[in-house]
Amino acid sequence: MSTLAALNFQNAASPLMEQLIFFHDHSMTILILIITIVGYNIISTYTNINIDQHMLESQPLELFWTIVPSFILVFIGLPSIRLLYLLDEVYQPSITIKTIGHQWYWSYEYSDFLNLEFDSYMIPVNESMDSNFRLLDVDNRTVIPFNTQVRTLISAADVLHSWTVPALGVKADAVPGRLNQV
C-alpha cells in the first residue's frame, strides 16, 4: 500500500513488477549521470575565462557527442524492448477473469467456472471501519490465485475506467466496446 509522500514504488508482488522497478532504477541512474555531466560542462563553460577555439569547433568532440548518445539509447532500449515482450502476452493461462467497469462499480466473471460472477461496490465512508482503506475497500473483493498465469479481459459498459493493480505492474483502460487483455 502506498503512503503519503512516498517517493518509491510499492513492494513488487510479481516478477514482472520487479523487472519494471529494476528498469526504472537503471534508466534513472543513466539519466542522473547524463544530467550531472552536462550540467558540469555548462557550468564550467560559463565560469571559465579561457575559451579554447579548438574546444568550440572540434570535429572529434562533435563525433563523440553524436555516437555516445546512440550507445546510451541502445543501452536503455534493449531492456525496455525485453520488458515489453514479457508484459505483452499470457500463454496458457490457468484462469480467465472477465472485468467490466460500470459507472459506480465493477463486475467480475470467472469464465472458467459456471455461473460465478459478482459485482464489487466501494464501501461508503460512513460505513467503513478503521481497519478498512478509505475509498479503496469494496464489499466483494476479487480473488486472484497465487503463482499462476492469469488472463484478465477488461471492458466497460458505459464510461472510461482504469483497472490497475500497482503491486503486480498491471494497468489497463476499460473502454466501452473494446476488450483489453492483460
What does this structure look like?
- 37% of the residues lie in helices and 20% in strands.
- It has a 5-stranded mixed β-sheet, with no helix packed on it. Strands 5-6 form a two-stranded antiparallel ribbon.
- The longest helix has 33 residues, at 15-47.
- With 182 residues, it is α+β, with helices and mostly antiparallel strands.
- The radius of gyration is 24 Å and the shape is elongated.
- Helix 1 runs antiparallel to helix 3.
- The chain has helices at residues 15-47, 53-56, 59-88; strands at 95-101, 105-110, 117-121, 150-156, 161-165, 170-174, 180-181.
- The model has no long low-confidence stretch (mean pLDDT 86).
- It is found in: Mitochondrion inner membrane.
- Keywords: Copper, Electron transport, Magnesium, Membrane, Metal-binding, Mitochondrion, Mitochondrion inner membrane, Respiratory chain, Translocase, Transmembrane, Transmembrane helix, Transport.
- GO terms for molecular function: copper ion binding; cytochrome-c oxidase activity.
- It is a multi-pass membrane protein.
